[in-house]
Amino acid sequence: MANQIEEVDFVLVICTENYENRFKGKGETGKGHGVKWEGAILIQELYDAGTQNTKFIPVIFSADDSAHISLPLSSATHYEIKSEDGYKALYRHLTNQPHTVKPELGEIQSMQPRECKQDFLDTNWNIPYSRNPFFTGRDNVLDQLHKKLTSTKSVALSQPMAISGLGGIGKTQTAVEYAYRYHEEYKAVLWAKADSYESLISDYSSIAELLNLPEKNDKDQNLIIIATKRWLEENSGWLLILDNADDPKIIEDFLPLKPKGYIFLTSRSQSFENIGISNPVELEKMLPSEAKEFFLKRSGRIKLKATEIEAIESIAQELDYLPLAMEQAGAYIFKIKCSFQDYLSSYRERGLRLLEKFPASTGKYPESVATTWSLNFEQVMQKSIAAAELLYASAFLEHDNIPFEIISKGANELGTAIASSLDNIENDPLVLDEVFEPLIQYSLINRDFAIHTYSIHRLVQEVLKDRMDVPTQRLWSERVVKATSWALPEVEFSYWYLCNQLLPHAQKCIDLIEKWNLESQEAAKLLNGAGCYLRIRVRFNEAEIFLKRALDIREKILDGNHPDIAKSLNSIAGLYVDQGKYAEAEPLYKRALDIRENVLEQDHPDIAKSLHNLAGLYRRQGKYDKAEPLYRRALEIRERILEPDHPDMATSLNDFAILLEEQGKNDEAEPHYKRALEIFEEVLESDHPDVATCLNNLGGLYSRKGNYDEAEPLLIRALGIFENVLQPNHPDVAICLNNLGNLNRKQGKYDEAKTLFSRSLEISEKVLGPYHPDVADYLSNLGGLYSDEGKYAEAEPLYKRALNIREKLKEPEHQDLAVALNNLAQVYLDQRKYAKAKPLFVQAIEVIEKSLGKEHIFVSKYLINYANFLRQIRRDREAIKIERRAKAIQSKNINN
Question: pLDDT tens for residues 516-530?
Answer without folding.
Answer: 999 999 999 999 999
